[in-house]
What does this fold into?
Amino acid sequence: MLQKKKIKYTPAAVDDMDEIFSYISADNIFAAEKLLDNLNHQIIMVLPIPTAVYFSQIISVLYDKINLDNL
It folds into this structure.
């Protein structure tokens, strides 16, 4: 019988993901949801062999938010 693996996020990881989601969703909720979906998908992909080395192509998107109040 296959053992089902569980994902346990540390409180710091949850806080980081919440912050990232909040920051991006302020401008684009769909982009924020897609980012977290992709992150969770990558985490699930490494579950079968947690000690293996994984390389993943990271598509970088430049995302800057300019705070005009500080100018």
